[in-house]
Design goal:
Layout: H1 8-11, E1 48-52, H2 57-68, E2 75-79, H3 113-120, E3 132-135, E4 140-143, H4 146-155, H5 163-166, H6 176-191, H7 193-199, H8 203-223, H9 237-253, H10 264-267, H11 269-281, H12 283-286, H13 291-301
Parallel strand pairs: 1-2
Antiparallel strand pairs: 1-3, 3-4
Helix pairs in contact: 2-4, 2-9, 6-8, 6-9, 7-8
The chain binds glutathione (GSH).
């Protein structure tokens, strides 16, 4: 079942509009419920489902958290095709040209992520973004904001998990203030900063994004000197949130988004080492990173930036060995 509502302008990144000054503003997510013991959405094995794209840095946060917490048997996953086109993110049945994607087993007739949003709310008027945390029981969206989903995964299922997985805490009480502080400027200037640079449609909007981005990378480079983690010598959500942007940096953001004052592999040795250790030593990071999805998505889907849809062959390798 595909919605008959015409939602093309809401789902086509090719029709993306910038602000009058040429800058890009990301809209807030719309579904903001929580999985918790005393609410509508109680923690249960097999009840919830994640819809993700391997291309999307925000969705990849949730894949990393799910794997770190050992929630693979609790929360199933559907991976969409990286070809985000006219109707937004397609399931496999709507894009036979990309084999490494899934159909929506729970709703086999759906063709796109937008159909899910209309199942949850037939009057939905926002963007059709991934990740989507879906409730199979109430047939609706619990939450579509990655920063909130990873915090739910961190704690909501702990009483159902083996002790070693329950003990993993990516938002530890003692470090919350520091993590929140880092998240704030990393989100604005790095995670979203690359998009602001890439989608800017004026020189000044671009420069207003790209200089603060590199200033923040310089700051992170100092912070990571001799360190495996950003905060408190332990793996936290601050690492996850930075990793998903830095891993896409050399393959995509340097070229496609014009973030090219430096790249990570030559310009930032401390960030580079921190990132390679996470990728090569921790399968939650490696298994959630698919460079073919990443490159295909940005260069194919964002025709405002790359009208030819030609995907560059480099850099080689996608990530260097340790
Ligand atoms: N704030 C959201 C952002 C999610 C987001 O923007 N996802 C992008 C893909 S990287 C998307 O699905 N965009 C579709 C659209 O904007 O139409 C989150 O962190 O979950």
């Amino acid at each position: 079942m595909t919605s008959t509502k015409n939602a093309t302008d809401m789902s086509d990144i090719g029709k993306l509009k910038t602000e009058p000054d040429g800058s890009f503003k990301r809209l807030a997510s719309s579904f903001r419920n929580s999985i918790k013991n005393d609410g509508q959405f109680i923690p249960e094995k097999g009840r919830y489902h994640l819809y993700v794209s391997y291309a999307c840095p925000w969705a990849t946060r949730t894949l990393i958290a799910r794997k770190l917490k050992g929630l693979e048997d609790f929360i199933s996953v559907t991976v969409v095709s990286p070809h985000m086109g006219q109707h937004g993110w397609p399931f496999k049945n709507a894009d036979p040209s990309w084999q490494d994607a899934d159909d929506d087993i729970a709703h086999p007739n759906l063709q796109h992520i937008k159909d899910l949003y209309f199942l949850a709310d037939q009057n939905y008027g926002g963007r059709f973004t991934v990740p989507v945390l879906w409730d199979n029981k109430l047939n609706t969206i619990v939450n579509n904001e990655s920063s909130e989903i990873i915090r739910m995964l961190n704690t909501a299922f702990n009483h159902l998990l083996p002790a070693d997985k329950a003990a993993i805490d990516i938002y530890p009480e003692a470090h919350r203030q520091e993590i929140d502080g880092i998240n704030e400027w990393v989100y604005d200037t790095v995670n979203n900063g690359v998009y602001k640079a890439g989608f800017a449609s004026t020189q000044s909007a671009y420069e207003n994004a790209v200089y603060p981005l590199f200033k923040s990378l310089d700051r992170l480079e100092e912070m990571l000197k001799g360190k495996d983690y950003l905060v408190g010598n332990t793996l936290t959500e601050a690492d996850i949130r930075l990793f998903v942007t830095t891993i896409r940096f050399d393959p995509v953001y340097v070229g496609h988004f014009k973030c090219n004052l430096r790249d990570i592999r030559h310009g930032y040795p401390n960030i580079h080492l921190w990132m390679r250790k996470l990728y090569w030593n921790n399968d939650a990071f490696k298994s959630s990173t698919k460079f073919d999805h990443i490159k295909e998505h940005y260069y194919w889907s964002q025709t405002v930036v790359n009208p030819s849809r030609v995907v560059p062959v480099g850099p080689v390798p996608d990530i260097e060995p340790l």
